[in-house]
Amino acid sequence: MIELDGIDHAILDALQSNGRVSNAELADSIGLSASACHRRVRRLETDGVIDHYAAMVNRQLVGRGVSVFVEISLESQREDVLDAFEEAVSSVPHVQSCHLMAGNADYLVHVTCADVADYETIHREYIALLPGVTQVRSSFAIRTITDTTALDLAVPFDH
After folding, report:
1. DSSP labels for 2-42?
2. Start and end residues for every CATH 1.10.10.10 domain found in the chain
3. What CATH number was assigned to the domain covering residues 60-140?
4. CA 131 to CA 38: how far, in whole Å?
5. 128-147 confidence digits (pLDDT tens)
6. Residue 51 DSSP class
C-alpha cells in the first residue's frame, strides 16, 4: 500500500470528478503551484495509484441501459477450469466486469445490454457456452441507485 497525504487525496478526488481538468486549474483548486502539482500527479501515475484515464459513456444513450448481474457456478474450482473460464469471459461482448466470488456462485458477471432480448442473445451465444459452466442465474437491475468509479478516499481504513 502506498502512503498518501492530504494533498494526494485532494488531487485524486479532483481528478476522479473531472479527469480532464487542466494542471493549472487542478493546482489552483488544491493550493499548489502548477509545477508542484504536476510533479505530484506524475508520481501518482508512476506509482500506479492513478491507473489510467477514461471517458465515462452514458450507457442509456448508447443502447446499453440494462444491467444484468449473472451468478455463474463452475464444475470445479481447479485452476485449469478457473483459468479457462476467465480467459473466455474476458472476450464476451457487453461484459463490464467479472469477479471471482466467495459464497454460492463462483463468479459474478456484470453485463450491460439494450433489453431482455439482447441479453437472451448474449446468454445463448456466449454465457451458456463458457467453459466449465454448470449453473447460471441472471438478475436484472430494475433501477440503479448509485454507480460510481470514484473511490471515497476520505474514509479512513484501519488495519
Report:
1. ----HHHHHHHHHHHH-TT--HHHHHHHHT--HHHHHHHHH
2. 6-46
3. 3.30.70.920
4. 46
5. 999 999 999 999 999 999 99
6. -
Residue among 159, 125, 127, 132 at smallest CA distance from 76? 132
Please list the residue range(s) of the chain that carry CATH number 3.30.70.920. Answer: 60-140
Helices 34-46 & 23-30, crossing angle to 10 degrees? 100
Q: What does the alpha-carbon distance between residue 133 and residue 105 come to, in Å, rounded to a whole number?
A: 11
Please report where in the chains the cell 481538468 appears, as a residue: 21
Taking the CA atoms of residue 125, residue 129, residue 130 and residue 131 in that order, the dihedral angle to the nearest 10 degrees is -160
- 28 vs 35: CA distance, rounded Å: 11
> What CATH number does the domain located at 6-46 have?
1.10.10.10
Per-residue confidence (pLDDT) for residue 32, from 0 to 100: 96
Instruction: Report yes or no: 11 and 19 within 8 Å, Cβ to Cβ.
Output: no
The pLDDT of residue 69 is above 80? yes
d(CA 37, CA 49): 15
User: Could you tell me where the beta strands, DSSP code E, fall in 13-145?
Assistant: 66-74, 95-100, 107-113, 133-140
Q: In 3D, which of 93, 3, 96 has the Cα closest to residue 57?
A: 96
Please list, in sequence order, all residues whose beta carbon lies within 8 angstroms of the beta carbon of residue 138, skipping any fewer than 6 positions away.
Answer: 68, 69, 70, 71, 119, 123
At position 29, the amino acid (one-letter code) is: S
